[in-house]
Amino acid sequence: MSSQGGWIKQLDMRALARVITMIENDDPDKLSLLSEIFSKQTDTTFVGITGSPGAGKSSLVSRLITQVRSLDKTVAVIAVDPTSPFSGGALLGDRVRMHEHYTDDGVFIRSMATRGSLGGLARSTKDVMRACGAFGFDIVIVETVGVGQSELDIMKVVDTTAVVLTPNSGDILQIFKAGIMEIADLFVVNKADIPGVVKLRRMLQELVMITSTETHIKDIVETVATENKGIDTLWEKIEDHQAFLQLTEAGQEKRKVQRTYEIQELIREEIWRDITQFLEERQLTETIEPGDDPYEKAKKWYALWKEEGR
Question: For the whole model, what pTM was predicted?
Answer without folding.
Answer: 0.82
